[in-house]
Amino acid sequence: MDNDEIERVLDRIIPESMTRRGHTAIDAFTAPIRDVLNRRIFPDVALTDDQLRLMIQILSSMDTDKDPKAARVGEREARIASPFIGSLSAGFNHGIGRSGQLTAPQPKAVGASLMQQVANNVALDAIRKLGLSNTQAGLVTPLSTGMTIALVLSALRRELGIKTVLYPRIDHISPQRGISLTGLIELPVLTTIRGDAVNTDLSDLEKKISKNESCAVLSTTTFFPPREADPVKDIAKLCSANDIPFIINNAYGVQSEATMSLIRSAIDAGRVDAVIQSSDKNFMAPVGGSIVVSPNQETINWIADSYAGRATAAPVVQTLAALLALGLERYKELQGQQIINHAFLKEKMQDIANKLGQRVLEVENHIAVAITMDGLNVRDIGARLYNARVTGPRAVEKGAFGSSVDDYPHSYFVMNAAIGASHGDVETATTKFYKEAINR
Fold it and tell me: Is it the case that residue 201 has pLDDT exceeding 80?
């Protein structure tokens, strides 16, 4: 019902002064929804759950499977076994995209197509406002980070003919599986130990660039200590000078202003083709979506053209809803709390290290803290901590996979203070960690 219709109904029932008051309440409630749909930006103030439900219901009601008089005779008509099943995709049962084009409008899914375009624009605006103001285009993918890496590399293989991916070593399986899925050759770039930190060997990267034609570079900004962020500004300059594509896996780096500043300087200084970030790690959406941004609209178009078939709408609408449920003001508050929690975590870990005769690793990392566990059974301590209901720490034995370098000289234990974690989470986790460590 539009405003005129509502007014005609109310005029028959209640006095005009009350009608005006009712309009005021309705307008106030729906104003944030109208603003999102009209301007498609990351709002300063979060939407409420009731506003999100209404907006999603309005959009999903536009799809043809909601038309009670439609005769649906195709093989794919969003027929759903029960209302509960339909709710799992927020009512967007037709999915998004069309065969071979992830962002193409879908005739049967008017509302889902509109929702997807709003999601792409809101996500890009969020990434821009949170640090990457020099990006120009964005896309929410219905894929987690590793699969999105594969999607991006597939696009660059098709459009630019890349054959090899130069990958500064990170001991993480997901991106490697993404490279493998594309059929491209992964060529690891060596890392070196400087103090406690593990860093990319830029000289080895330069050598491999000079010896490999039709290559691209995939680097990483966020990982567990002792690995530090890749020097993406220097790599961007190298890629620009050698005319090769550069993809940055910024998995959970949006929450860190320092990391986003690093990437922004890389875009300004050289060549960056795409930056990939997780929607769950950065914006507290369910696992399953990613946000890709680029300084170039054409690159985003290539990526959208690389998806096979239609896609589920669920991760896209979940990412949109999470962004709108946060808003810029609340996200900034969460970032401030993350900085406080990280400092508190470092203080607690330093105290534990002192008591255990260990030390905190001197590694630049804005989210995680690691301490040495030399002479201790770190894997056993990690297992017992898990049974003590602490999730997320990382226990690595000396020389084992995980350090992103051969023969790292310490066993160590890592804890994170990521966005959304509470002071109480850090307090409880570190207290239990110390208890398990002394009871070894």
Answer: yes
Q: Render pLDDT for 4-57 as a digit per residue (tens, 0 to 9).
A: 776 666 666 777 776 677 778 888 999 999 999 999 999 999 999 999 999 999
Sign of CA dihedral 238, 240, 241, 243: positive
- CATH class name, domain 330-438: alpha beta
Task: Respond yes or no: is residue 318 known to be catalytic.
Answer: no
Known catalytic residue at 21: no
**The whole model's pTM is what?**
0.93
Report how far Cα 272 is from the mean position of its chain's Cα atoms: 18
Candidate list 76, 177, 423, 435, residue with the active-site label? 76
Going by C-alpha positions, the residue among 177, 172, 169, 174 that lies closest to residue 198 is: 169
Contact yes or no for 52/325 (Cβ under 8 A): yes
Based on the residue annotation, tell me whether 113 is a catalytic residue of this protein. no
Of the spans 69-73, 91-95, 245-249, which averages the highest pLDDT? 245-249
186 contacts 153 by C-beta, under 8 angstroms: no
Concerning whether 348 is annotated as a catalytic residue, the answer is no
Residue 301's Cβ-side half-sphere holds a number of Cα atoms within 13 Å equal to: 5
Give residue-wise pLDDT tens across range 350-402: 999 999 999 999 999 999 999 999 999 999 999 999 999 999 999 999 989 99
Catalytic residue, candidates 60, 90, 98, 137: 98
271 in catalytic set: no
Positive or negative torsion for Cα 160, 164, 168, 171: positive
User: β-strands 394-396, 412-416: how paired?
Assistant: antiparallel
Yes or no: say if 403 and 381 are a contact pair by the CB < 8 Å rule: no
Q: Which of 51, 106, 176, 338 is catalytic?
A: 106
How many whole angstroms separate alpha carbon 14 and alpha carbon 19? 7
